[in-house]
Amino acid sequence: MFWIAAWAVVLLLAFNILLASVLASQVDDALRARAQAVAATLVYSDGRLTALNGGNNSDEALDVGTSVYLGATLFEGTQLSAEMRSDLLQKSEVIEDSERYGPLRYLAYPILDDRGGQVGTIVVSSNIDIRNHTVRVIAATSLVFIVLTLVFTFFALRATIVRALTPVRAMGTRAAAWSEEDLDKRFDPGAGPRELRELSGTLNGLLERIAAALRHERNFTAELSHELRTPLAHLHAEVDLLAVGEPLGTLERENLLTSIRRLEGLVETALVPARIDHNAAPGLGRVSDALEGLRAPASGSAELVVAGDTGITLAVESDIVRRALNPLLENAFRYASHEVRIDVSAANGHAFIEVSDDGGRLGVADLERVFEPGFRADAADGHPGAGLGLALTRRICRAAGGDVTARVEDGRTVFVLRLPSI
Length: 422
Known about the structure:
alpha+beta, 5-stranded antiparallel beta sheet, 10 helices
C-alpha cells in the first residue's frame, strides 16, 4: 500500500507540473500571435513608424494590453513604468513576476528595420489569474481524487485479502484439528480455485507424512517391545530360579549375562537417534575409531576384510557410527559364505562405508523392505531377531544427516552407509 501511495503522489506531481507547463505555453503562443498581428500593421521607414490601419485607435482589439515603442518613445498603447521599460524594451523574452508587475505575463516582440536591426518593441500582456486559478483547482481536485482512490484501494484490497485468506485460514484450522484428532481426513483436491487446490494438495501431503510418521513410530514401538520381551523373559526366569534357591551353573550365568548385554544393546541403539541434536554442533569421529574392535565372530567361518581410507574424519561420533554398523555386520556374518568386506571412501563432503557379504541371499525386490521394522527376508532361518536392526541403522544414519541403502552387485549383498565428513 505504501508503494501505491508513493506512485500516486509522484503521478500527481508530474501531472500538475505538466499541466502548468502546457497552460503557460498556451498563454505564450497567444501573446506571440498578438504581437505578430500588431507587427504586421506597422511599417518602419526613414526613421518613422507608420500604422497601416490608418490610426492609433482604428483597431482597438490590438490595443488591449498592447504597447508599441519606437526606441524608448511610446508610439501606441499604454505607457509602461520606467522599471518595466528597462526590463522589456530592446529585448525579446517572456517575463512573469506577480510581485512586481501583478498577475500579468508580458512578451516583448522586436520591431526590425530593413537591415534587421531592432528599432522598436511591441509589448503585449495577458492576465494569468484565470490560468493560476485553473491550476489550483485542478491540483486540489486531483489531490482529492488521489486520496479517495487510495482510500477505496485500501479497503478494496483489505476486503479482497480477507476474502482470499478466509478459506486458507479455515483450511489451516481444519488441518491442525485433523492432525490432533483424525489423521485419516483429507481435503478435496478438486474443490475451489487453482490456488486452493494446490494448497489442498500440499496440506494433504503434510497430513499424509504426519500419519506415516505416526504409523512408523507405532510399528517401531511395537516391534521394539516384542524384541525386548525375549531377554526380559529370560531374566525373569533366572530370577525365579534364584528365588527358589536353585544355584546358577556356568551356562546359566553366561546366558543371563548375554541377555543383559542384549537388552542393554537394544536400549542404547534405540536411544541413539533421540540423542542426536540437529541444532548442536556435531561431534567428530574417525572411521578407524568406529571400526576398532570389530572382528569376525569366533563361531563364524567368514573372514572380515577392511579396505579403503579408514582415516576419514566424520562429523558424527564414532560410537554412533559403530552402533549403526553393528546390525549390518551381524547380518553380513550370518549370511556370508567366506568373506565380509568393509570398504571406506569419501566424496562431496560425505563418507561412504560399504558393508558387503558373499552370501547373496537378499532379493532385489527386498532392497528397500529390509529397512522396515519387523521385516525379515527369511523368517525360517532360525535367527531369534524381530527384524529391527536395519530399521535402527537407517534411523541412526538419517538422524545424523546421512542415510543407508542396499544393493545387490555381482552376487554380493552391499549395504552403503552415507555419513557427513569433513
